[in-house]
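Reviewers of the previous submission asked for a worked example of the structure-prediction workflow described in the proposal, so we include one complete record here. The input consisted solely of the amino acid sequence. No template or homolog information was supplied to the procedure at any stage.
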Amino acid sequence: MKNNIEWTALAIVLFILFFASYYVIRPVLDAIILSAFFAYVMCPVTSRIEQTVKSRSIAAIIVVFLTVLPVVIILVQLLSIYSNEFENLSKLAVTIPFFENMDFKGLYTILITEIENRVSPEKIIQGIGMGLELFLKIFIIIAGAFYMLKERMAVKAFLISLAPRSKEEIIRNFLDSVDRMFYGVFVGHFITSLIVGIIAGIGYYILGKYMGITPLYNYPFLIGSFTAVATLLPIIGAWLIYIPISGFLVLIGDIAGGISTFIFGVFGLTVIPDFVIRPYISGTKGETHPYVVLLGFISGPIAFGPIGIILGPAILGLFKAGLDTYREFILEGDKIRYGDGSEDGQGDVG
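From that input alone, the workflow returned the following structure tokens.
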């Protein structure tokens, strides 16, 4: 009786502490999920680097740095484009019949003036607060990813240690099943997007060079990076990048460039990745049917918003891993026990 009361009291305390902890981390929960996602995706790379540098901490630092660096490069290129290409864009626009009489500099001045008129001290303070919140979330993502990369095995050992000794094998196999599922879904999806980004960068560079399309030739890394990010988004995909580019080229009179870019985008960035690369990587490595993978990436954002890109596949992956563990350790165990009992009964009758 005393033990039951103690266990009940402990369960109540843990229940209260769980919800209190959730209340504390709720404002940055999306950042924590993103850091966990990033750490899991980059874990194979960290392990490879660790074999060379012989230090998990140094390997984690290198991976985080190499991941942050392209983001910084993209931001620098965006600033460069904004400062250098606006004048070129306004000159180019006069060749388009519909825009030839537009004063782009005047529109830009009007836009800036309108923004200045609408800015108030309250909005400035609100903007500073939003900027500070964004900075803190970025810091949490980077720091969380580093520590998760560094302590991955310790986290797994801690989760296993929470189970009773008689159930440790079940929990260990459940985590291994989750690992296989997540590897196929997340690492495979990330690899697919990375491959598409590389294909896009090379393809746009070749199109820009041999067809005289200056933006494609000057900024293949930037456009390829945007294509990789767009490929990460379910439903949207690479067409979000190549269709506007194709349409713009046709609009300014470069019909051949627009058609070539569209054909390259459809076959090189949509058909081949969606029907060959993605199903092969995500479906076979994770031992998961491609339809389950697709369902998670599509339904997740509908149910949870942008963070559902991660939560949708993760929940379906956990459910499938749970079913696999139940089938392997519970149903199979019952079948073995039932079979043994039948054989014993037949022996007794005989």
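Confidence is low (pLDDT under 50) at residues 341-350. We consider this example representative of the routine output the project will generate in years two and three.
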